[in-house]
Amino acid sequence: MDVMPKTSARLLSLLSLLQARRDWPGALLAERLDVSPRTVRRDVDRLRELGYPVVAMKGPDGGYRLDAGTELPPLLFDDEQAVALAVALQIATTTGAGIEEAAARALNTVRQVLPARLRHRVDTLRVTAVDRPAIRPEPQVDSDVLMAIGAAVHGREVLRFDYSPVSGPVRATVGTSEGCEGTPAAPPGSAAPSGAAAPPAPPRGTPPQTPRHSGPPPPRRVEPHHLVTWGRRWYLVAWDLDRDDWRTFRADRITPRTPTGPRFPPRELPGGSVAAFITARFRGIGATQGPDGVGGWPCRGEVILALPAAEVLRHTREGIVEELGPDRCRVVLGSWSWPGLAAAIGRFDADIEVIGPPELASAFAHLATRYAAAGQPRAAPNP
Question: Helices marked H in 21-78 — which ranges?
Fold first, then answer.
């Protein structure tokens, strides 16, 4: 009575292994499944009968590969895969990739071919994806653009594209990222992390920057390395061939040109990983500078707040909070600027003792003078 469930579970495990990597030696599959090589061969034959194109590889050890088929075979998911797929498709509305309707159709299609037990499990998991309110709607990226960029990244082919000007006001930027040409140093529309304030706005009366050329800019030529998402926006991390440096480009401003260029060898990304590189660029620090204890912010300060540590922790996603007593805690936070850091700490509305550095104390004094002036009543204009 237990033979059929045991065989089905083993087939599911075998299929998951074949999907996890391209080639599998037969002996390694037998070891992972804890069965004999003969049993592996029989299970592979069963998968072929179900429609899965499993190809046998010749050689001293032999092996198997799950080849690309012309038709979609019956879908087999374990419990964790089914839940993961349902969650991923339901939160697709927050990706900014313009695939909301397609994701809903895909979820309905997958649900119809799932076994009754897993279908019920997926139906019980209803997720409502809600975006944070934004001043203006976030731009959507055409899925065809994402596919074109992804294909160039996968094929390691030089990509040429037109890069449209940024729409709306441009924030002041720091660092060497593509923010100097429209991509911000921090993702627009997303709130700055707790303990970090946005860069100060330019002084009133500052004239807008004029474009450096009147005609349409020439197409960009880059070696695309990574397509990433940050704060509901998509970015291309690439080596700019004309500027001889790493750049980040907003995908919603990219219009790819065809055909792509020659293939290129991969380059080592500064920072050791794409996550470290992107975090450094958006926080305005050098790409080769590693993050410190508070995430690598350019300005880092330490204070003592007259508040319980538990209360501060509820509103601080980054940094260090250390309890010093029932109503006293040590806080280490970072920001883009010293006034921004002082303003972020001041929002806790509690007595503050500055431990250091002196730049933070000076920023508090600067803000105190500015706030005091802002609190003075203005004289009535003359009639």
Answer: 26-33, 37-49
